[in-house]
Structures are given as structure tokens and as C-alpha cells.
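Minutes, structural biology subgroup

Action item carried over from last meeting: produce the C-alpha cell record for SWIB/MDM2 domain-containing protein (Sphingomonas gellani). EB confirmed the sequence was re-checked against the source entry. Recorded below for completeness.
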Amino acid sequence: MARSAEKRGKDETAAAEKKVKSTGKAASGARGGITAPVTPSAELAEIVGKDDLPRSEVVSKVWEYIKKHDLQDAKDKRQINADDKLEKIFGKKSASMFEMNKHLSAHLSAKKA
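Output recorded by EB:
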């Protein structure tokens, strides 16, 4: 018989709490990768703010900025036409939405533990 999502969630929580008690270390899970806090560079901080944010939140704030300033190409929405602030990050006047994360990575550093 399959467990319900609620039952599975309770079981996983109980297992995590048991691990924390036995090892004294935090349970692993969604605390790394895209959810780990990162520090933006000075150039990127002009757009997303200077506070440490999860990588997913940085990408969301950059998209908010792009849409607010109408920087998507009218003919090809996948293309982003950089203004002065985004040009500092992209290193060029135009970038595709697929290469945007590559350019953002160069302006993010992992938060020191």
C-alpha cells in the first residue's frame, strides 16, 4: 500500500530529527545548490541588493529587473538587450536567457560558513 504524501513527510521529518539527535549535525536536504545563500558582486548588487540571497532568488530578481525595464527583445523574447547595469554583468550588449545564468555565476560567491 502506498503512503500518503503527508505520512511520507512526517516519516522524513522524524528520520531527520533522529539523525540530528544522534550525530549532532544538521540533517541534509534542500540547504545547498540553488537554495544556498550566495553573495552578489558590487555590479550585481546594483540590481538585486547587497544582501546574501539564494541563487534562485537572485535569478528571480534579475528577471524582475529585465521585465520592469522592458529589456527583452521584441522579436525574440529569449534575447535580453542589456542596459548599462546588465552590460557590466553580461560583458556585452545582448545575451540569451539561456546564457544569463553563466554570466550571473561569475558575479556570485558562496557564503562562507
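Discussion: Residues 57 and 101 are 12 Å apart (CA to CA).
Next step: EB to file the record with the rest of the batch.
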